[in-house]
Structure formats: C-alpha cells, structure tokens
C-alpha cells in the first residue's frame, strides 16, 4: 500500500516540476527611437538587423531571453540600394542594411546581456568603439537601482585631434592599436584618452576594463528604450 501511494505522489509531482523547467523565459521588447534631427540607420544584433529611421521614427524589436553580446547602435551617412547593400560613414556592418555583425568604429553602443546571473539583465553604454551619436538606454519602467543611463555630451565637437574621424570620434585602440589602449593583455588602466570620454559621459564605458562604474542591471523580463540624440 505504501509503495502504491509513493508512486501516485511521484506521478503528480514530476509533471509539475517539468512544466516549471520548461516554462519559456519572456523576450524583452526594445523600442528604438530616433530623436536626431537627421536620419540614422539603426542596427541591432544578434536580433533585429537594421532599418532606416528618420527623425521621430520608432523601431520595435523582440530580443530572446538569454541573449548575450547584444548591441544596438546608430549608423550615419549611409547609402543603400534596393537590395540593402551599401555603406555607412560610421557604424557600418559589412555594407548591409540588415546587420548580422558588429559595426565599424566610431559608433556609440548600447550593449546588453539578458537573463544572466541572479536573473538579472546587464546593460551599458560604451564608448570603447568611439562615439558617433548620443544615446539614452533606459528601462521602460524604472524602479530603484533599475534606472536609465545616458551619454549625450558633444564628444564629436570636443574630440582630441588624434581621435577625430569623419562623422565621429574614434577610440584610441582603433587609432594606435597598442595594448595600452586595446587591453589585449587584460592589465590596462585608464589613460588620458579614456578620461576624456569618462569626464563627458560618466555612465559609459571609456575603456574595456571600466566595469565598476559602467555596468547596470535590471530584473530579467524588463523592456527597454534606446533613444538616439536624447
């Protein structure tokens, strides 16, 4: 009789456990808005691709839960043919309107990894690939430590001469290609160039090891808004 009871209980509990494990995590909705006075070509990888956004236009994409290495950025000075082939002055991704690879510096980045450690989303704004367009990266519903970040300073207008590039301000790694700036060994420190970016945009990554002041979190399942030229 006891054996029969045990089997019956197991039959009820196991399916419930499996149902819990198999419940899909919710995708995050990213609303991407162009507040620039000019046209940009928004890009998003690994989900999204790319699209032209004129002033005031919005692009909405759903990003699967668990996505890592996610980026959203604006491309400028683009020209594409009817097949979606062409090029951009900043942020170009292999000459494609619908990006499947990261953009070419200089480009300001909204970066994210969803549903990671402790069921948190990790997100940041990065100038490690330089700067082309100001960004605001915010949760749709801020709460407590889950709040928006922004990099909207006139970095292009104040860009050091050595980093100046058509349409943007380069990062020093792209220009000098040394370990001091590229952090290939993992032991690099802040430099005068990284401090230039950090002073203008305290929330944003200024060099690859700038983690402590530049990484932010929200609960998994949060939806986000990325605004160009906030």
Written overview of the protein:
- Helices cover 19% and strands 30% of the residues.
- It is of the alpha+beta class and 230 residues long.
- The protein has one domain: Sandwich (Thaumatin), CATH 2.60.110.
- The chain has a 6-stranded antiparallel sheet with strand order 3-2-5-8-9-14, with no helix packed on it.
- A hairpin with a 3-residue loop joins β2 and β3.
- The longest helix is centred in the N-terminal third of the chain and has 21 residues.
- It is globular and about 45 Å long.
- The chain starts with a helix and ends with a strand.
- The N terminus is likely disordered.
Features:
230 residues, alpha+beta, Thaumatin, six-stranded antiparallel beta sheet, five-stranded mixed beta sheet, 5 helices, disordered N terminus, Thaumatin_CS, disulfide bond, Thaumatin-like protein
Total strands: the figure is 15
CATH fold-level name: Thaumatin
Specify the number of helices. Answer: 5
From the N-terminal CA to the C-terminal CA, the straight-line distance is 70 Å
CATH class: Mainly Beta
Tell me the overall shape: globular
What is the mean pLDDT?
A: 90
Rg, Å, rounded: 21 Å
What's the SSE pattern? Answer: HEEEEEEEEEEEHEEHHHEE
Instruction: Describe the oligomeric state of these chains in a short phrase.
Output: single chain
Q: Strand order, biggest sheet?
A: 3-2-5-8-9-14
**What structural class is derived from the secondary structure elements?**
alpha+beta
């Amino acid at each position: 009789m006891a054996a029969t009871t045990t089997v019956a209980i197991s039959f009820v509990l196991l399916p419930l456990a499996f149902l819990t494990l198999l419940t899909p995590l919710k995708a995050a909705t990213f609303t991407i808005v162009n507040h620039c006075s000019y046209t940009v070509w928004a890009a998003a990888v690994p989900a999204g691709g790319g699209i032209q956004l004129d002033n005031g236009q919005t692009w909405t994409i759903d990003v699967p839960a668990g996505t890592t290495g996610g980026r959203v950025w604006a491309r400028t000075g683009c020209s594409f043919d009817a097949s979606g082939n062409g090029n951009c002055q900043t942020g170009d991704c292999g000459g494609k309107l619908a990006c499947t690879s990261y953009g070419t510096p200089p480009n300001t980045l909204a970066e994210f990894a969803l549903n990671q450690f402790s069921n948190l989303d990790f997100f940041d704004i990065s100038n490690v690939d330089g700067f082309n367009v100001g960004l605001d990266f915010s949760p749709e519903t801020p709460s407590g430590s889950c709040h928006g970040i922004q990099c909207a300073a006139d970095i292009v207008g104040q860009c050091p001469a050595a980093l100046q590039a058509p349409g943007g301000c380069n990062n020093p790694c792209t220009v000098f290609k040394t370990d001091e700036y590229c952090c290939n060994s993992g032991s690099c420190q802040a430099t005068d160039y990284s401090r230039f970016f950090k002073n203008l945009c305290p929330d944003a990554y200024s060099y690859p090891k700038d983690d402590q002041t530049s990484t932010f979190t929200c609960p998994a399942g949060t939806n986000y808004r990325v605004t160009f030229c906030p």
